[in-house]
# Entry
Amino acid sequence: MKKKTRSKIKYTDDKGEMDGKWRIRRGELPDLDALLDKLPEKTKVTLELDNSALEFFKREARKRNTSYQRMIRNLVRSYAQSHT
# Structure
């Protein structure tokens, strides 16, 4: 029986922490219902989130009968598009 070869996962020691004070700017964030759209191409990544942030997305996704991962993906996409 042939073994499946897996691609090597590369991890960095960058924790993704940002310095400085954070301010919430609600006018620049998309509406939660707008985060339900599907994306055409995806790449798997490993990401650590604060428990409170993850629970927020899980709770909101349950209310909307969708995937919390989809909502997070679309939030990141929306942020990236607004800064390009």
In short: The chain has a mean pLDDT of 76.
